[in-house]
């Protein structure tokens, strides 16, 4: 290897599967690697020095997807000595050493509790020329103390807790993420302020069950207080959260949503099933009447609230009557969107060994009926907004057809996707800017606004996007090794210059 090559920083790529938790964990993985001296590979780079898979174990095909992708990488690695492959996330926590046994070309396996160990494990694997597998049974360091490379200039995830104390029979997450661990409110608010100082306009508070937040330090009203505290942060324009559990949803949270101006009137609250018998078998500890009661209270306080949900079809023992009850609840709840899933058996969960596992064709038929029912309702709800003015936070990657249609895309305050015509503002609107526009057309999953925008506001987030800056929040380095050439000393900066 030449001296020049030896001093060149190693490149990395992170491939993410699964939920918002994994997306945010990948931001931390990127932040850790960059603080350790790695450089993100260009998208077109087919052989970065390090490829990290951040995996999900929730769906049945998660294993097949991972091992298929690892198989595709093997010949690439064979042709590029020194390339490393790391596997982390929920599937790594579950499969542990089996990953290296099935794919011996993998260099590092790390779990959900020790993301911060990744740079050390990569260096150790290089030095020892042997695979490193490190899985901890409990949280090593709260992930938000780690450096983070944010993917968006305008919106950021902020974890308020990790883990889950619930015992839903279909879910493997508590076994892989552990018991709930809550951050102190001051730490959370400090991270939110740091993001806002970088130009971020929208923050999503993230947890497996956000409204049980505070259980660890004995304050069952802590989440509502946290929402109100976010309202005092100057420059923070939108606050969202995901996901609450209906059993812990309290009236003070509804009041905080309604009374705090920057908290968006959007709520994602998983239903899973409309049948009380199925909810009992799922160990969900609420019933349909309780769920609908929460929705009624939310709409009484915020008539414009957009409510989204998760629904599982085909849970073991689900009867035709159970499924019809789910459709009834969907019709009554009037969701603005729903994430629908066919039940998939996950080894290690109680539901995997329950009697009454349903034939695939039965589950598929019910799934198609559910989708048709949901789309009929979401389309009708979206049509009510035609002619209304919406505030759109301009986004990147939300509109797959934007280049062909000439539109731009973003999210309204209620979370709905809006495709809009820039009109006379064409070329001036950046991701992170705010546009007010009028809805002209509604589809089941989006709104169109094809008239001239009513206004365009340039923002600091838009400035950052235009300059190609990504927000970074610092963490505690934990003695991580640095590789490659030493970083140059930063030039003096003032104001909101890039970090």
The main pleated sheet reads as: 7 strands, mixed
Radius of gyration, taken over Cα atoms and rounded to an integer in Å:
23 Å
Total DSSP helices: 16
Task: Indicate the structural class.
Answer: alpha/beta
Residues in β-strands, percent:
15-25%
Mean pLDDT: 87
Description of the structure:
- The strands form 6 sheets. Strands 20-21-18-17-16-19-22 form a 7-stranded mixed β-sheet. A 6-stranded parallel β-sheet has the order 2-1-3-4-5-6, with helices on both faces. Strands 8-11-12 form a 3-stranded parallel β-sheet, with helices on both faces.
- It is an alpha/beta fold.
- Helix 13 links the parallel strand 14 (306-313) and strand 15 (337-342).
- The relative contact order is 0.11.
- It is globular, with a radius of gyration of 23 Å.
- The protein is 34% helix and 19% strand.
- The model is unreliable at 1-5 and 476-499 (pLDDT under 50).
- Helix 13 (320-333) runs parallel beside helix 14.
Task: Characterize this entry briefly.
Helices cover 34% and strands 19% of the residues. It has 499 residues and is of the alpha/beta class.
Key structural traits:
single chain, 16 helices, 6-stranded parallel beta sheet, alpha/beta, 7-stranded mixed beta sheet, disordered C terminus
């Amino acid at each position: 290897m030449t001296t020049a090559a030896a001093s060149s920083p190693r490149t990395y790529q992170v491939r993410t599967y699964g939920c918002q938790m994994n997306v945010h964990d990948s931001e931390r993985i990127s932040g850790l690697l960059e603080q350790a001296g790695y450089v993100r590979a260009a998208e077109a780079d087919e052989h970065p020095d390090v490829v990290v898979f951040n995996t999900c174990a929730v769906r049945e095909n998660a294993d097949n997807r991972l091992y298929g992708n690892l198989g595709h990488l093997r010949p690439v690695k064979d042709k590029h000595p020194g390339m490393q492959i790391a596997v982390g996330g929920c599937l790594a926590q579950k499969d542990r050493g089996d990953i290296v046994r099935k794919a011996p070309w993998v260099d590092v396996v790390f779990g959900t509790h020790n993301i911060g160990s990744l740079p050390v494990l990569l260096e150790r694997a290089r030095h020892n020329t042997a695979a490193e597998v490190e899985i901890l049974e409990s949280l090593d360091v709260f992930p938000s103390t780690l450096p983070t490379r944010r993917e968006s200039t305008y919106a950021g995830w902020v974890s308020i807790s990790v883990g889950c104390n619930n015992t839903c029979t279909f879910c493997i997450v508590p076994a892989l993420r552990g018991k709930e661990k809550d951050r102190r409110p001051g730490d959370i608010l400090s991270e939110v302020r740091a993001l806002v100082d970088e130009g971020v306009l929208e923050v999503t508070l993230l947890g497996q069950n956000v409204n049980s937040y505070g259980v660890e330090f004995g304050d069952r009203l802590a989440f509502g207080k946290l929402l109100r505290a976010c309202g005092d942060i100057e420059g923070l324009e939108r606050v969202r959260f995901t996901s609450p559990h209906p059993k812990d949803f309290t009236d003070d949270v509804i009041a905080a949503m309604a009374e705090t101006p920057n908290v968006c009137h959007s709520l994602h609250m998983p239903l899973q099933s409309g049948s009380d018998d199925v909810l009992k078998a799922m160990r969900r500890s609420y019933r349909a009447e309780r769920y609908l009661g929460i929705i009624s209270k939310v709409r009484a306080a915020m008539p414009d609230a957009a409510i989204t949900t998760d629904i599982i079809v085909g849970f073991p023992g689900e009867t035709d009557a159970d499924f019809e009850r789910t459709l009834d609840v969907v019709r009554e709840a009037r969701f603005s969107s729903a994430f629908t899933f066919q039940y998939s058996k996950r080894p290690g969960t109680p539901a995997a060994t329950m009697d009454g596992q349903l034939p695939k064709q039965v589950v598929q038929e019910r799934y198609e009926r559910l989708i048709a029912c949901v789309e009929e309702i979401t389309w009708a709800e979206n049509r009510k907004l035609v002619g209304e003015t919406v505030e759109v936070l301009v986004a990147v990657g939300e509109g797959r057809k934007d280049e062909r249609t000439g539109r731009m895309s973003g999210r309204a305050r209620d979370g709905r996707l809006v495709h809009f015509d820039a009109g006379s503002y064409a070329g001036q609107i950046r991701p992170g800017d705010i546009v007010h526009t009028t809805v002209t057309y509604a589809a089941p999953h989006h709104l169109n606004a094809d008239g001239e925008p009513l206004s365009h506001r340039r923002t600091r987030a838009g400035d950052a996007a235009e300059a190609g800056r990504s927000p970074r929040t610092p963490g505690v380095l934990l003695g991580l090794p640095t590789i490659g050439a030493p970083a140059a000393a930063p030039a003096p900066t003032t104001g909101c210059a890039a970090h």
